[in-house]
Fold:
Amino acid sequence: MKNRVISLFFILLSLSFLILSCSNQKDIVPEKVSELLLVKTITGEEAKNIINKLHFQPVTDNENLIGYYENQSGQAIVYVTIYDKDEEAKNDFEKMTKKISPENSVFIFPQFFDFENNKIYKCFGMGMTHFVFALNNKLYWISVDTHLAKQFFEDFYHSIE
Structure:
């Protein structure tokens, strides 16, 4: 009887951790943003490989998450890198935005702006609008169809702050 109670306790404990970890991922990439639905999430080694492949070299060893959103009006992709400390995310934000320039990338019309007291980098390229920012120990890169960009960015930001 005692072994059954201990086993049940560990099963319930494991389920609790599983539920908590799932809810944390939903906080990182919400199920719905501006009428676009989260249709696919990639995590772990696969997400890290995709992000490194986009850069043609290894750029991250951190935990990564990619969320794909879409509906009939368009699509968005959110890339997230998770850091131990907020300062690390902000430092990589600064490094990343310094490297992105019209002279050496496919991104054009770069600009910084302030949103909710946070520094946001915005640029255009590959038919989409891109937003980069650090918030709560995470570095976000949002690529969204330009006609949906402003509303998607604002709604996404408010859903994770």
About this structure: Residues 2-26 have pLDDT under 50 and may be disordered. DSSP finds four helices and eight strands in the chain. Strands lie at 32-33, 36-43, 63-71, 74-82, 108-115, 118-125, 128-135, 138-145. The chain has one domain: 30-160.
